[in-house]
Specification:
It is a single chain. This protein is an alpha/beta fold. The longest helix has 11 residues, at about 25-35. The protein has one domain (about 5-125): Rossmann fold, CATH 3.40.50. Strands 3-2-1-4 form a four-stranded parallel β-sheet, covered by helices on one side. The chain has helices at about 5-10, 10-15, 25-35, 50-55, 70-80, 115-125; strands spanning about 40-45, 65, 85-90, 105.
């Protein structure tokens, strides 16, 4: 099994025990990127929505999540099912057919290192 699929096999446990990102991280990202609350965020490798939650808590609610693991993506969908503008797609980022240039900010908490850099970097920074 490829290491990038490890967390998908223990998705419920991962969601339960994984520590949240510090709130300051999201404030710093917002301040550094200078995005407004109506901006579109692309989250690459959302897992179970740890970073999604952090942005929602700051009032950013237009978030597209791309997640390789089907179990992880399903947890994210369920968690944010009442958030009209939060969408979670189950797809390897390399194969995802969305257009990253349609977003104001592309982020990845702890997953981008799993993405093939020859595909991932040019896809995010055309």
């Amino acid at each position: 099994m490829d290491h990038k699929e490890t967390f998908n096999t223990v998705a419920l446990e991962y969601d339960k025990y994984r520590p949240a990102y510090p709130k300051k991280l999201f404030r710093d990202i917002v301040n550094y990127s200078n995005i407004s609350q109506d901006c579109r965020i692309l989250e690459i490798g959302c897992g179970t929505g740890q970073a999604t939650q952090g942005f929602l808590e700051l009032g950013y609610n237009n978030i597209t999540c791309v997640e390789l693991g089907s179990n992880l993506a399903n947890i994210t969908r369920e968690k944010f099912k009442n958030e009209e503008n939060v969408r979670a797609y189950n797809s390897p980022f390399e194969d995802w057919d969305g257009n990253p240039s349609n977003y104001d900010l592309a982020i990845s908490g702890t997953a981008f290192h799993f993405i093939n850099p020859k595909v991932g970097y040019p896809k995010v920074v055309p």
